[in-house]
Amino acid sequence: MDSANILVSINESKKIATVTLNKPKELNALSYSFLNEIFEALDTLDKNEKVNCIILTGTQRAFAAGADIKALVDQSPIGIWKMNMYDLWQGIKQIKKPIIAAVSGFALGGGCELAMICDIILAAENAVFGQPEIKLGIMPGAGGTQRLPKLVGKHKTMELVLTGNSITAVEALRIGLVNKVLPLEMLLHEAETMASTIASHSTVAVQLAKESVLKSFDMGLSDGLAFERRNYMTCFDTSEQKEKMGAFLKR
Description:
Blueprint: E1 6-11, E2 16-21, H1 32-46, E3 53-57, E4 62-64, H2 77-83, H3 85-93, E5 99-103, E6 106-108, H4 110-117, E7 120-124, E8 128-130, H5 147-152, H6 154-163, E9 166-168, H7 169-174, E10 180-182, H8 187-199, H9 203-215, H10 221-234, H11 239-250
Parallel strand pairs: 2-3, 3-5, 4-6, 5-7, 6-8, 7-10
Antiparallel strand pairs: 1-2, 8-9
Helix pairs in contact: 1-3, 9-10
């Protein structure tokens, strides 16, 4: 799981893990092989019972500056199809444990899409977000036209996607793309604090809550409410629910 390109650290006492993208010369550009390494690291942690929450971060200069253009410039539609990066994106989407993106530097194109597929986004003051694919004669292809409007609305999405212009962390916060903006030196500390809080809660309840929120993007209200009720009732079959409610009543 740990490699030259992906650094993984686990804090067992806090039940959190940090996955660091570590290709600084390429600004963490997302080739197929690199995205596969990211997925494999996250998938391994998802199955690790000593981890309840995951932090995904990059270097100070770049979370991920987009796709690996050298690998795409001569591709055909069939070549892109055979590359099958869609399955990797779907795999990341299906990680059950919460993922906090701690973003500093560039989060452009696929990097912005990678941040958006996470559950919470914390941004350093030097973070830059955008979907600049239009400048290369293409368009976002890993969720940029689908997740972005659900976060920031139609008109802002159109502006970002059709101009290819980037925005600062402060603007990303204003439009609802990120949760918090922090000084660079505080970014990982805040991510670890938040991850520790999440990891301290019922593992089952946290994962069912994440699943329910994500389903709200795929279902109508009636179906979503039914899905939520099912997950809510499932929580009452855990020892953690009995222990936590019992402790609450004692207080």
